[in-house]
């Protein structure tokens, strides 16, 4: 048990340039002054310095970028005194819900716009057009029609067994689907605020997607043509307000931010989401009129940048790019996003814009370095958290051992999901609103189902107050769950890390974390969901039967006395960079001046892309040569192809989707699939048609896929001698095939059986760290089971690497052998589970002495005799955790570390 003390807040003065209207709205919301870190970060951004604000959960990071963003929209336009008074009056009327609108179709006097003060020979032609084209401010959208939130959550790390992140872009429309309609839409300022479709039917974007503006009817084709003749530059020069691009890793967070912007009632802020859930007919409106666009890296990569000419007006005025939850951009995903941001900077430069980047992150080590690597810019860090917080109690909970025995007679603990389900039920009975974070989609469903079953026995009505939340649900299901959580209709919610990010759910009392979430940053981010309103809070980490979880509950100083990890990403990874160079060339031809922007390896990769026929080199630069979309070459979430649709065979009902890369392990034939508390068994997995057919069932077991893995060394990049032992880092090729699945009883984890599978193998070229022992060292061990000892050391080292690298156990893999064909020696490999590598193995090589000593300590301190899931057994072992030799692993590691450098 650990107590986190309460902290007093430190206030600062509002920046002098803060828009007065915003300050009035914030004061009405109870915000009288900013915290120091908010004011400091806002001042940096307003002064033109890119900045990252890396402070704790619920520290108000959004205000740090809201201040300069609203100033960019409101503060640039200079109007006459009468115009200022008229605008202030309009804003005041909007704030109290009073808006006077002209009669529909009326062509009378127009509200005076800033262009009407201008003079020049072309003004006579321009004024009537602009008077009709610029939309009128209107009463806040949520007063007019019901909400229809459009975010879709995502964020578990690809390529885990069930990565959540791929879902944000899995159903994103292609560029072809986003092609402009034949008939262009325009707006009419004086006709009462409707928009006409090509067929003449009035339509409007729903309130949930657009803030503070009412689309108006189309102008005539002649007027539109006349406006285009004047030229885009002349039009934009008369619209001096800046634009804001907001990026979040999940749609849920973007929707939450949109709701917060709506609550400010700033009528000149035309905010809208632009993501895979945005209807096609609304996207034109967003491009033409929104000045605060909330989207995600996937839509920026696949839609906005490839069609940047259609966004020219927005990009030309782009003042700020907000990158929220920046600590989530790590590994291969973060490396892809880093290149997407470089492409954005390049396209903005074409239109004469050089936006300032404002990054918001949970507390992280070396935030300025990580932000600079992500954006390619010099970034200032603000990390001194001045916000107040209530006290929190943090408990570490280890489930008890049962009387059951597992593989090779190892004792079995009660499962973490079963324990979490019971804890969630207990808290719901006490009326404690709780989020239970679970590592996988299936686990979230299992926890919710377990809590419901427990409540059915003691308080049946309360079972309806518990649900599951995860990616793969339909958008309307997720929006309904979010609304129910805010209104406290739901008291208990089991969720994946889709709700880990900054969705503002105030009033939560407790958080239960089912299994180590992969990093300290994620742990504190999840725990911080409770107590956001300043009240005292409870957080509980329930340990899984896993070496790392066991190590942490017995060494709490590794959690509470250690700084959070650095963010690991590698934008120069050629498997990441090459497709983005192609995408950049398709947007604008690459030139020599662009090489520095994309990194030092760019010059070496371009000739190979030319040789393979992706690019063509001309004296003026490198050009994309193909008809297909270059953006499709880069799969930034690592989803590995089209998502698999999960369909109920009897009814044809679409239950959800699963990433193609995870389909072999989650929706193989015979797999148990859970959706909203309903259980199904997969009857057929059709990879060609990307569909899994399921049937309703109520099995009392869960399923776990097993695979076999082979590895070969492609290139040794670095090596270090530890006496006769050698530590290496380099490129390897991994071949992996799912060959069977196991069935275990849900509540106890008891093994029920195993069935074979026939699925294709996958090949992965990646980076690995490996170590070898010399023949003389091995000979000194006598008749020890070398294969079992190496296998046990491999499992334990995989389990402990996430303590040193910003990764999850499912982000990495391993192979061990008494004699590897490429080395001729006893060899243990740990590799990145991402094409090209993600930096995890490289971090393991850098911290090898400390990492392997922690591995040795974890095995040594475990109470079992011959090995168990808490030390050397792996939940994803393709060999059924056989052979394993606990004492042999300790002997190998002792010999390996005998001449290792001391830990830092």
From TrEMBL:
<dbReference type="GO" id="GO:0003676">
    <property type="term" value="F:nucleic acid binding"/>
</dbReference>
<keyword id="KW-0067">ATP-binding</keyword>
<keyword id="KW-0347">Helicase</keyword>
<feature type="compositionally biased region" description="Low complexity">
    <location>
        <begin position="163"/>
        <end position="184"/>
    </location>
</feature>
<dbReference type="InterPro" id="IPR055227">
    <property type="entry name" value="HRQ1_WHD"/>
</dbReference>
<feature type="domain" description="Helicase C-terminal">
    <location>
        <begin position="423"/>
        <end position="575"/>
    </location>
</feature>
<dbReference type="InterPro" id="IPR027417">
    <property type="entry name" value="P-loop_NTPase"/>
</dbReference>
<dbReference type="Pfam" id="PF00271">
    <property type="entry name" value="Helicase_C"/>
</dbReference>
<dbReference type="GO" id="GO:0043138">
    <property type="term" value="F:3'-5' DNA helicase activity"/>
</dbReference>
<keyword id="KW-0547">Nucleotide-binding</keyword>
<dbReference type="GO" id="GO:0005524">
    <property type="term" value="F:ATP binding"/>
</dbReference>
<protein>
    <submittedName>
        <fullName>DEAD/DEAH box helicase</fullName>
    </submittedName>
</protein>
<feature type="domain" description="Helicase ATP-binding">
    <location>
        <begin position="200"/>
        <end position="382"/>
    </location>
</feature>
<feature type="region of interest" description="Disordered">
    <location>
        <begin position="139"/>
        <end position="210"/>
    </location>
</feature>
<dbReference type="GO" id="GO:0006289">
    <property type="term" value="P:nucleotide-excision repair"/>
</dbReference>
<feature type="compositionally biased region" description="Basic and acidic residues">
    <location>
        <begin position="139"/>
        <end position="155"/>
    </location>
</feature>
<dbReference type="Pfam" id="PF22982">
    <property type="entry name" value="WHD_HRQ1"/>
</dbReference>
<feature type="region of interest" description="Disordered">
    <location>
        <begin position="82"/>
        <end position="113"/>
    </location>
</feature>
<dbReference type="InterPro" id="IPR001650">
    <property type="entry name" value="Helicase_C-like"/>
</dbReference>
<feature type="compositionally biased region" description="Low complexity">
    <location>
        <begin position="82"/>
        <end position="100"/>
    </location>
</feature>
<feature type="compositionally biased region" description="Basic residues">
    <location>
        <begin position="101"/>
        <end position="110"/>
    </location>
</feature>
<dbReference type="Pfam" id="PF09369">
    <property type="entry name" value="MZB"/>
</dbReference>
<dbReference type="InterPro" id="IPR014001">
    <property type="entry name" value="Helicase_ATP-bd"/>
</dbReference>
<dbReference type="GO" id="GO:0036297">
    <property type="term" value="P:interstrand cross-link repair"/>
</dbReference>
<dbReference type="InterPro" id="IPR022307">
    <property type="entry name" value="Helicase_put_actinobac"/>
</dbReference>
<dbReference type="Pfam" id="PF00270">
    <property type="entry name" value="DEAD"/>
</dbReference>
<keyword id="KW-0378">Hydrolase</keyword>
<dbReference type="InterPro" id="IPR018973">
    <property type="entry name" value="MZB"/>
</dbReference>
<dbReference type="InterPro" id="IPR011545">
    <property type="entry name" value="DEAD/DEAH_box_helicase_dom"/>
</dbReference>
